[in-house]
Specification:
The chain is of the alpha/beta class. The protein has two domains: 157 residues, P-loop containing nucleotide triphosphate hydrolases (Rossmann fold, 3-Layer(aba) Sandwich); 68 residues. It contains eight helices and ten strands. The strands form two sheets. The protein has a six-stranded mixed sheet with strand order 6-7-8-3-9-10, with helices on both faces. A four-stranded antiparallel sheet has the order 2-1-4-5, with helices on one face. A hairpin with a 2-residue loop joins strand 4 and strand 5. The longest helix has 16 residues. The protein is globular and about 55 Å long. The termini are far apart. The N terminus and C terminus are likely disordered. It binds adenosine-5'-diphosphate (ADP) and magnesium ion. Adenosine-5'-diphosphate (ADP) binds next to helix 1.
Length: 266
């Protein structure tokens, strides 16, 4: 995949750096003292229960969320910097497309905003497996197809950083597997992906995981580390074990067992 020219992330560097980030919404603290980096050219999974702050964190990274403290650097610039506009793709949880337009017209429209041509449009549609539906009005598509149109509208810009908020919700298992395969190919081609999910089993597709709980970062680790520290091959179980024993998440005690109480907050 060829990227547009400005701001290429250095292969070994971090695409996103978050320091001491705090965000309040509706008068209460939603994100609290977050510190982490997102490696470039990899898939990072943002995992946590509903309400844990995943969407708010993604909004902060794409620069549409007012923050109370700390900093968010994206591709070496402050989040929301105008120069980042063509380099970040963001797909929200609710698919936002024009229902009266065909799949192709929708993708072409978003492509035009980034000065992309018809070839780029067709490539993005193929990347989400909607070639056969490209002339169909999006109003006539299924929910899963709609969210893939939304994804194509982000892909057409060929962003360096792709932020996807629960992109696999409502998709059948086959499509879900296909989509993860496409994400992997994009990462192999150099795109940085941040993908949220509240389904722990999806963690296995990611190179790196950010585990969020109640607005705090419980851990940043690989799926293999999650499995090991949480003492389970089942990543859902392992995550629950980390919640029950936050010291395991921090890696402070090694594979301790038994004696700690069920302190829920990390
Ligand atoms: N616009 C808003 N106003 C007030 N509180 C909000 C708003 N949006 C989200 N919240 C609260 O922020 C917390 C995190 O929400 P969100 O980031 O959407 O979590 P997630 O995406 O993990 O489900 C929740 O407690 C939610 O109720
Ligand atoms: Mg959300």
């Amino acid at each position: 995949m060829s990227h547009s020219t400005v701001l290429p992330p250095k292969p070994s560097s971090e695409a996103v750096e978050v320091r001491k980030l705090a965000v309040s919404r509706g008068g209460h603290q939603v994100l609290d003292d977050l510190n982490f980096g997102i490696p470039a050219g990899r898939i990072t999974g943002l995992l946590g229960p509903s309400g844990s702050g995943k969407t708010t964190l993604m909004r902060a990274i794409v620069g549409v969320q007012k923050i109370n403290a700390g900093s968010v650097q994206v591709l070496g610039r402050p989040a929301g910097h105008p120069s980042l506009r063509h380099h970040i793709g963001y797909v929200t949880q609710a698919p936002s497309v024009y229902p009266d337009l065909s799949v192709e017209a929708n993708v072409r429209y978003f492509g035009a905003m980034h000065r992309k041509n018809r070839n780029d449009t067709l490539e993005a549609i193929a990347a989400v497996g909607l070639e056969k539906q490209s002339r169909q009005k999006t109003a006539d598509l299924s929910g899963g197809q709609l969210s893939r149109v939304s994804l194509a509208c982000a892909l057409v810009a060929k962003p360096h950083l792709l932020v996807l908020d629960e992109p696999t919700v409502g998709l059948d298992p086959v499509l879900r597997a296909e989509l993860w395969e496409r994400f992997r190919k994009m990462a192999d081609a150099g795109t940085t992906l941040l993908v949220s999910s509240h389904v722990m089993e999806e963690a296995s597709h990611c190179a790196s995981l950010l585990l969020l709980r109640e607005g705090r970062l419980l851990a940043q680790l690989t799926p293999a580390e999650l499995s090991r520290r949480g003492s389970s091959q089942d990543l859902e179980r392992a995550f629950l074990n980390l919640i029950l024993k936050p010291s395991l998440a921090a890696g402070l005690t090694g594979a301790g067992s038994g004696a700690e109480t069920s302190e829920v907050r990390p």
